Amino acid sequence: MLVLFGVAGFVEIVAYGQVTAFTPLYLPRLGIPESEIAFWVGAIASFSNFVGLPFLPFWGALADRYGRKPLIIRSFVTAFIALGLAVIAPNVWVFAFSRAFQSLGLGNTGLMLATLAEHAPAARTAFAFGVVNGANPLGAFVGPLIGGPIVDRFGFPTLIAADALAVAGVIALLSFGYRDGFVPRASSGSLLRTLFPALFLLFAGWMLAYIYVPLVVARLYSGSDPATAIGIVLGAGGLGVFVASPAIGAIADRFGRSRTLFAGCAALAAIWLLPYFARDLVTFTIAWAIVNGLAAGLFSVSFTLLSASTGDATRGRVMTFSYLPANMGFVIGPGIGSVIASVDVFLVFPAAAALTAIGLAAVVFAWRQPVLVEA
Question: Per-residue pLDDT tens for 230-253?
Fold first, then answer.
């Protein structure tokens, strides 16, 4: 099951990472002037993630009532349709709609983690979550790395069509590769309402920076293969996550999840300034690998806190929301970035540092409230 979910997450992030990485290069072909690309990158990312958020409670409630598996498969069917629409999009409006439609698949990783939480030993939950969340960014490493040369030589639609075929294969694997042993139980309340808004702020900075990395690379790279350069940089970031996420999960299992989250986020707020001062491509690539790996590993730790603070009856609903801080970060972050990046794209990194610091303060405050339970 761990391998199957890892493969599914890998393929999903390959496709999503490639769409995100190469959208700035594709927008001019959809009629967007060069001067408006930074605005449209942020607007599409913010709008497309916002559309799917109202449906998250619905998916989680269905998962707690009828099982995790049908809702997990639903998300990959949605991705398949969205990728197909992106391939044939004749203009930016249809392309933006395809990105928004894909957000109707939100919640699948949380449901996979909920399934794992019910099978993994309690003392190894953070490590298991770290492995799955590390397998996902392996897709962020491989996807842009192999996608860049394909875009440079064959075009963006060819790459996305190949992604759609890969997602179809995942649908088949999930349909026949495992049995869902979920049994509905009586409901018990969740104690996590004060933590979610704090996590929104904490990870908004990460999403803000991630969206604008391709534009930073375009500023630093002067060669003839920009998509390949973007792929290498984002691939390095994915490799950083692949290494850091299981390691941070193991540290959290040993020294405490909340302690690891607080200390790690304090360090993250400081090192967000590294990519801001990196004004050559090699230095920036190294800096991005460091901050992206740390941010993703800490995000994985937040999942273990959420899972440990709820019972079996409501775990599907809670874990469906586990990616909500990142999803809302993709709304808040690019929304801010569409203004900041229009002044100077490098300013997204000090903005990410500020959001992380504010978010850390909010998380510490929320964690001290009596409705929360230490994991």
Answer: 989 988 888 888 788 888 888 988
Residue 136 lies in a domain: yes
Report residue 229's pLDDT band, with 50, 70 and 90 as the boundaries: very high
Residue 271 lies in a domain: yes
The burial class, CB within 10 Å (0-12 / 13-18 / 19+), for 364 is: middle
Q: Which of left, alpha, beta for 178 (phi over 0: left; psi -120 to 50: alpha)?
A: beta
Taking the C-alpha atoms of residue 174 and residue 245, their distance in angstroms, rounded to an integer, is 24
Asked if residue 8 is part of any domain, the answer here is: yes
Note whether 271 and 219 are within 8 A (CB): no
Give the integer Cα–Cα distance in Å for 273 and 351: 9
Domain count, the chain: 1
Q: What is the C-alpha to C-alpha distance for residues 134 and 147, in angstroms, rounded to an integer?
A: 20
| Cα-to-chain-centroid distance, residue 83 | 17
CB atoms within 10 A of CB 98: 22
d(CA 246, CA 188): 31
The dihedral built from the CA positions of residue 73, 116, 100 and 45, taken in this order, carries a sign that is negative
